[in-house]
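Re: the request from the purification team.
They wanted to know what the chain is likely to look like in 3D before they choose a buffer screen. I agreed to run a prediction and write the result into the notebook, where they can find it.
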Amino acid sequence: MTGNVLAARYELLEQLSEGLLFHVYRARDLTRSRVVTLKAVRAPYASNQLLLDTLQMTLDARTRLRHPNLLELYEIDLAAQPPFFVEEFVRGLDLETRVRRTAPFTVPIAIEIMIGIVEGLQAIHSAGMTHGDLRPANVLVGSEWRVWLNGVGMRGVYCAEPSLAAAHEARAAAYTAPELFRGATPSIASDLYACGVILFEMISATTPFRGETPVLTAEAHLNEPIPSLRQRNPATPRTVEGIVTKCLQKDPAHRYATALQLLNDLKAVRDALRFGKSLGWSPIDLPDSSTAKAPSSDMLARKSAPPPPASEEEEEEDDIPKWLRTMIRLTGALVVLGLVIGFATWMALRFVPEDRPVPQVVGKTLEEANRILRQAELEPEVRLEGYSEQYPPGVVYSVSPPEGRVVRKGSKVYLWVSKGSRFVELPNVSNMPESHARRELEGMGLAVMDSVEERTSATVPLGYVIGTVPPAGARIDRSRPIKLIVSIGSGYDTAPTTTPESPQPDTPKRQFEVKIDLSDQPDRRIRIEVEDALGKRTVLDERRTGGQVYTIPVEAQGASVRIRVYVDEQLVQEIIR
């Protein structure tokens, strides 16, 4: 559908994703000259009236929500074909992708993202609603860790269609609260449980409860004890582990009562990290805290307990002089201590580990280095993957302890592995859709800025890339951010009125090129109309094969030319010169 115009207003620029229920597009609102996100209901469900009615109620409830951490809903048209609704477009990456690429996050970044999530939840709960489907795929993260929540209330829509409900439950199982598996409805407590799972995953790079199937994952949520976040990531402060543990309580009554309570604790952690304050407190008793000190009631009981009656041996000891008893006890203690030291020395001499030098592994591939070290009965471990101008990717460029140093059998040997050169030649992504250009650059490990520079262009279609900063071909550091320059078309919001000219014998002919992108579409009928000094006429009307990008030459005459491009009888492009 890319290139089509829906409701004579929304021009579909590119497909961003395809979900269980929606095709998601980046579109241009021709009436208000702004870029929006348009979600069209997929064909199998566009005629399901029960599902559409449920979706309409959900979206109507969303219209009450206004908050910086929530996507604004602009328009709902479920009577159209296909049914669709329009939301605010933001430049960001979903948290699921960010976790997959860069987790574990540092604690300050994870806390900052979670504060944005919980602020959005607080607005939803204050409006008398619940999110119900909170997971990283429904969290968008932009520049400076700004957060937007997506998919509010959609769990109920999926449940209106059995096939959708099963597929949705399978992908959401890792973030679903235990009571929902027992048939309870989504609540504030279940949203806060999902917050605990997401925070755990950001800091440890894995969810707390995992199973090979959704059913096994559900059983883990229901039955397994809460794992220790600090065991997964020792850099986690005790306070943060306590916050996660409180969110993940099996009993909803033992979790935070409101999003505001959780938000206050998260902000307290953020302030402590900024100003170097202690994070030794916890909002809930952790497993290792019960033995820190005995309860005061036990201490009082111990103090008030009467002393036991003296035994017959103690009465007999009164006949031995006090100084002699002391000497006997001291001599016995020294004998025992000597025996312990002697036994430990004998064991150390008997089982002294064998020593061996660290073999040469620098310049070897990681696989080969691991094999050499294991043959030497040493334990290899990758400490860091870093850039190296000398060694190609996957090759060991440093080792600790250094090669040749004598170490004990079974010692760990840390390896530094090359990711290749820090510098790379920037490829040319001109004339690509913005999303395709981003994927290509990020696939090379380059950082692409969320913000873009928009320019008018008479030759590059709307939404396509004109160029980059720095330019293509430049040799740049991989860490340097790249800005995309994106076309906003010829700059017309509405087409200027023109009248056909009378043909002049000496009027020169003009050549144009029309680009039509069918790279992700099936076969389409294409029709091109030209209006120039010779009048209005059709210069092309034929069916073209999908999966390609076509560049079609068009000839016109006169100083004023208007070219209209139709795909399946819908106007998708208009060129005025």
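For the purification team: Confidence is low (pLDDT under 50) at residues 289-318, 492-505.
Please add any questions underneath this entry.
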